[in-house]
Amino acid sequence: MAERETKHIIRQWNREIEDETRRLAARGKDSGPWRAVVWGAIWVLWLGALLALIALLKPWH
Question: Which of 25, 35, 47, 48 could form a disulfide with 31 if both were Cys (CB 3.0 to 4.6 A apart)?
Answer without folding.
Answer: 35
